[in-house]
């Protein structure tokens, strides 16, 4: 009991993660040693005496910390368990929200104050894990899947443990819709459609809008840096309708070539432009507002993949001016299995209901099913007519908590912190001899605002090998093509390693990554792999086919868009499992 009270101190790094045992179970020798040390420390600090006097109440919080009120996902204040029961109070009841620290208070802190990442790490239980012989887990794969704060996992658990109440479930979904709308500054919660993820959201646009508005001979503009989920649905649409696909190439500094885009625009023929806000490999923020202006002048719609921007920076759909925006919950501190599509109400109302069934109609009768009758008169208003079937109630509630958590931190604050991390990550990795870093440097105009995401290669060392050896040291990164095979072909490589940080990471995490990476490269060098110095750029338009692994040859940036090698089909994209088998 005393240990529980001690560990419930707000901000304590070792907050309990598992359920409290109702019956005695003999702990392991390691656990007994930890308990003995903890008891000794507690006794020395006088906490045992304090706890006995206060009948088990937790020690007082540090000055300036605030205890949040426990709330259920639907916003109702959670009931405390009866006295003497075995039920444990929600961890959230004693958790300190980093968002309770105002900007003014943060400015008054000394330079020795912990970073934002350090301040909120206690909210993420997985970061206390150890893997591979008690090595602390260092998670650097958030561009693929982010970790969940306790409020998110508690929302999932709360739904599974409470009784099934249709009205409460509906209220939870609509409350989550409001949270998402608030995060992206939508005009109305009705502009938010819940989906299984960004992939389904993009398919919804391609099917529900594209099939109605794209005809034979029309054109669709994409870019070579798109995620497969923002390529294949448009390819399928072009095949169905007989439309033509066009691709924006990269500039010399590996950014979106706006001049190439202007040349591809065909007023009257270009129907839709699909692009990402931030590349999941190059990291740069793309010129969305300029693309939107030019596209609208040509009469085209713009569909934005915002999976790498909504979690990391302020996104205002009113300012961007896009026609469609999609994102995935699992990349923004939320659960898997849910994402959303945003579009103005009039645009959603113009879309076809590409999936029908329960939840999409006001009512069904035999008369409405008779020959010659239309289904449109019976459909519910948007967004509900676009959400066929049982809604993802638990996932929606958890996504709402994730949005609330991010809004509490402040997206400007999150972005500024990640830009700082990104600059530090670039500077530290660039110290490694021969390393290739992809995307524009953060100290250039093209790289302005790029976050803490960086793909890289080391000559002579396969990215999968790097990821494997880093994994053995507890460092989880991503390797492979990251579901961007066309982009890697444009870069002249078969794959890359990628470190992607989030708001819960710190500069100390980057230091550990670099130290571990250097140790790994030293191992490869001792074994005769890799190169001592950076090789010159090859004077050929494609890698030497005699090389064992042409995908690892460095690209020559002044040769785009010549023929480039096929990317490896190793299924190691962003939808593959994380680098560390124990990190998830």
From TrEMBL:
EC numbers, comma separated: 2.8.1.7
Similarity annotation: Belongs to the class-V pyridoxal-phosphate-dependent aminotransferase family. Csd subfamily.
Protein name: cysteine desulfurase
Region annotated Disordered, chain positions: 534-584
Keyword Transmembrane helix: no
Domain (Aminotransferase class V): residue spans on this chain: 139-513
The entry's keywords: Pyridoxal phosphate, Transferase
Matching Gene3D superfamilies: Aspartate Aminotransferase, domain 1, Type I PLP-dependent aspartate aminotransferase-like (Major domain)
Entry superkingdom: Eukaryota
Keyword Electron transport on entry: no
Swiss-Prot/TrEMBL cofactor(s): pyridoxal 5'-phosphate
UniProt lineage: Eukaryota, Sar, Rhizaria, Cercozoa, Chlorarachniophyceae
